């Protein structure tokens, strides 16, 4: 959903068609590259959990701000709350999995 929101925002945020295309394509691509490099389960680079959470915060936070930017503040708030809850639960589950595996 964050990628969709970033594309939607990008295609409507620019002052002209070139800016709209650049933001509509570029913003989601940057988010996907960040995710793939650092936050995905099979990320290219294995980094410490705090950095993974930072990348997730940046990508999902940008998605929430993008929903707000296109005029859907309620959706932005609900998205942000769901993301925080999901990330917290996934992080706890990840830590529990590594504790039992050790």
Give your account of this protein's structure.
The protein is mainly α. The protein is built from four helices and no strands. The protein has helices at 2-13, 17-39, 49-69, 73-101. The chain starts with a helix and ends with a helix. The model has no long low-confidence stretch (mean pLDDT 92).
Structural features:
mainly alpha, flat, 4 helices
In a nutshell, what does this entry contain?
With 102 residues, the protein is mostly helical. The protein contains four helices and no strands.
Rg of Cα set: 15 Å
What is the percentage of strand-forming residues? under 5%
> First CA to last CA: what distance?
34 Å
Structural class: mainly alpha
Residue runs with pLDDT of under 50 for 5 or more positions? none
Number of helices: 4
The major sheet is characterized as: none
Count of individual beta strands: 0
Output mean pLDDT.
Answer: 92
- Order of SSEs: HHHH
From the spread of the alpha carbons, the general shape counts as flat
Residue share in helices? over 70%
């Amino acid at each position: 959903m964050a990628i969709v929101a970033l594309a939607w925002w990008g295609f409507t945020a620019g002052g002209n068609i070139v800016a709209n295309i650049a933001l509509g394509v570029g913003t989601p691509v940057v988010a996907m590259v960040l995710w793939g490099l650092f936050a995905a389960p099979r990320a290219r680079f294995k980094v410490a959990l705090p950095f993974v959470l930072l990348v997730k915060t940046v990508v999902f936070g940008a998605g929430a701000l993008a929903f707000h930017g296109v005029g859907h503040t309620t959706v932005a708030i609900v998205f942000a709350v769901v993301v925080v809850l999901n990330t917290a639960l996934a992080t706890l589950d990840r830590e529990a999995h590594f504790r039992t595996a050790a």
